[in-house]
Write a structure and sequence with these properties.
6-stranded antiparallel beta barrel, 349 residues, 27% helix, alpha+beta
Length: 349
């Protein structure tokens, strides 16, 4: 059964709770914060919120579940950055009552059971938070900021392996300055975005032999050619003991299902969104009971799955009725990139 969004759950009384940086963020340029073990949040963008609210039924299994809007405040003192959100009391009961020192920006431990396995995780979430504050002026003058709440896609995993791919062959940024448009065009043309229809924006992979993570960021991904992307795929799907061909085969099946849905949906034109590939890094966990994702609850009793694929980041999703003739004629959507990804993965197995 599909759970109602937070905003329509009938909760009117709000409670101030601690919110923490999301340690498993591997890509993007804006910060992602964790509200509960199953709920994260990211800065509000009207276009993206409208996409989730008007989401076509066929896409529901291939995007995070939308949980409504939350106001996030920021407290900076003694060189520590802490975040707080105003949430309905029905959601607050799933959040720890205290703000532990390790949940501040200076030390990010949450979500990792074994301190040894933190070795190799990048502090990308740290960098994104600081960029949000220093470059984008968030929380200036003590003002709270609006965020949207989404399903935490890594919640079912003990040691989540995550790959973030920026999809599409070119950008769409009608509101950008001419200088920024040229910069974006050069970026897309100088990376595998133009040839493969996607480029790597970040990975984290758990290696069972070393009991630690290996991570690469978007700057590393921009320097990869097709051969480099294939090698990075091999690295991502190798758990330190063996190449997880079983996971690759399952991911290919799910990508084909996603592609079939995208070919038939006619509500939105999707530009430069991202694709997340996830799988369980613990080689002892082999349960793959979820072919189409089920709606998660707010507590930690979510269905487990050994792998998943989801589309995220819909700031450039446009309703077909609002598309210009140029948008409708554009071939810069994401289907070509997904097909290229399927072809590349099939070469590996």
């Amino acid at each position: 059964m599909y759970m109602p969004q937070v905003g329509v759950m009938g909760e009117t009384e709000l409670e101030r709770v601690a919110v923490t940086p999301f340690v498993h963020q591997v890509g993007g340029h804006t910060c992602v914060l964790q509200v509960t073990p199953n709920v994260i949040c990211k800065p509000y963008q009207e276009n993206e919120a409208l996409f989730y609210i008007n989401l076509p039924e066929g896409l529901r299994g291939f995007v995070p579940f939308y949980r409504g809007v939350i106001n996030i405040s920021c407290d900076i003192s003694n060189s520590c950055i802490k975040f707080y959100g105003e949430v309905p009391k029905g959601l607050a009961r799933f959040i720890p009552e205290t703000y532990e020192e390790e949940d501040t920006l200076t030390v990010i431990d949450h979500g990792i059971q074994d301190s040894d396995c933190k070795q190799g995780l990048r502090d990308w979430s740290d960098q994104c938070v600081r960029r949000q504050i220093d470059r984008y002026g968030y929380w200036s003058e003590g003002r709270s900021q609006k965020f949207i709440m989404l399903e935490n896609l890594v919640a079912p995993y003990r040691f989540p392996c995550v790959m973030d791919l920026k999809m599409g062959t070119s950008h769409r940024s009608p509101d950008a300055s001419e200088a920024k448009r040229r910069m974006l065009e050069e970026r897309w043309m100088s990376t595998t975005s133009s040839s493969l229809g996607f480029r790597m924006c970040g990975i984290q992979v758990y290696k069972n032999n070393s009991k630690s993570y290996v991570s690469h960021d978007k700057y590393y991904g921009r320097g990869l050619d097709k051969s480099g992307v294939k090698n990075e795929m091999l690295n991502f799907f190798h758990d330190g003991v063996s190449l997880r061909k079983d996971v690759i085969a399952s991911i290919v099946t799910k990508l084909r299902q996603m592609l079939a849905v995208l070919e038939t949906q006619c509500a939105f034109k999707l530009f430069s969104c991202s694709l997340l590939i996830l799988y369980e890094g613990d080689s002892d966990v082999t349960n793959d009971s979820r072919d189409v994702p089920m709606a998660p609850s707010f507590d930690t009793n979510v269905p487990s799955s050994s792998n998943d694929v989801r589309l995220i980041d819909f700031a450039n999703a446009i309703g077909i009725s609002s598309c210009s003739k140029e948008d409708l004629a554009s071939k810069a959507g994401i289907r070509f990139g997904i097909q290229s990804l399927v072809d590349l993965l099939e070469e590996i197995i």
